[in-house]
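Shipment paperwork, digital attachment
Item: protein structure file
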Amino acid sequence: MSARETKISRRWLLAGGSAFGLGLLSAPASSQSAEKITYLFPAPPILPAFGPIRLAQGKGYFTAAGLEVSFAVGRGGVDVAKQVGAGNAPLGGIVADGPIMVRGNGVPVKIVAVFGGKGFMQLVVREDSGIEKPADLKGKTITVMSYQDTTFYALLGLLASAGLTQNDVDIQSAGPTGVWEFVATGKSVGMAGVPDWIPPVQAAGVKVKVIPTDEYFPHMAQGIAVSDQIIKDKPEMVRKFVHAALRGMKDIMDDPDKATDDFVRFVPEWKGKEGAVRFALNMYAKLVYPGQKQLGEVNAERLAKLQEFYLAKGFIQKATPVEELYSNAFIK
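Attachment content:
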């Protein structure tokens, strides 16, 4: 597969990354009784990372649940959490440990479902970098999408697990395309990445190694964030959205290759680049989605351990009662 076949339009991504609040994509017209809601993505919604939501939209799962869903884009997970907490969008996508970082600062959001039992962020390094483990990153340059994205905090946790601080490495905030372009061009040895960003690096002829974060740090997968107010005022809407989104996730787990065909049909920007989507969705099905007793369930013990770790390392100043960080009521 050539770089041209795999590479996403830089202009499209950058435009999408700044499109918060514009209702980037809308659901097909539905009945008058459908409840209109907006889901806020942390990055451009063409990314395979958002497969469960895009499949739920394209296959009519939201419509069947009586919801008419439109999409908007925030500036990373922390921004999404703040916007949802402020009531600017009823639901949004963040990494599931996001409430640990923001509730202590007065942002009233909970995770109501999580897309998988393993970590979302993967440490992706060039094979020629000689890096075998997080400790080897000392003195090296590594990229993140944004300092406001929750994968950045996961990287800090990963470094801390190896006895390193942010000052021991050169972390570059490079945006949704620069995060992998720096790796492809050798400006960085690796990235705090997600499966979506690996194919473009490989298409540039660069071999990479994926170091799963679960081996070193109890990071979490993406979750659906909802404000306390919406949970109180519209619990049935939340439940309907969660169940429809989890159907999309289950479709990917059951058959990543078929899910790829469906995803490309619903997100035509990927036509001709199906291989990149197939690679990413297979990685999600293998490295991120497994490990839950019930689909969508937040592992409270893992969340508690993660919060203890963040507190001990000074990433947060005070702990929040774990039951205030999540709710498993809506997956049932």
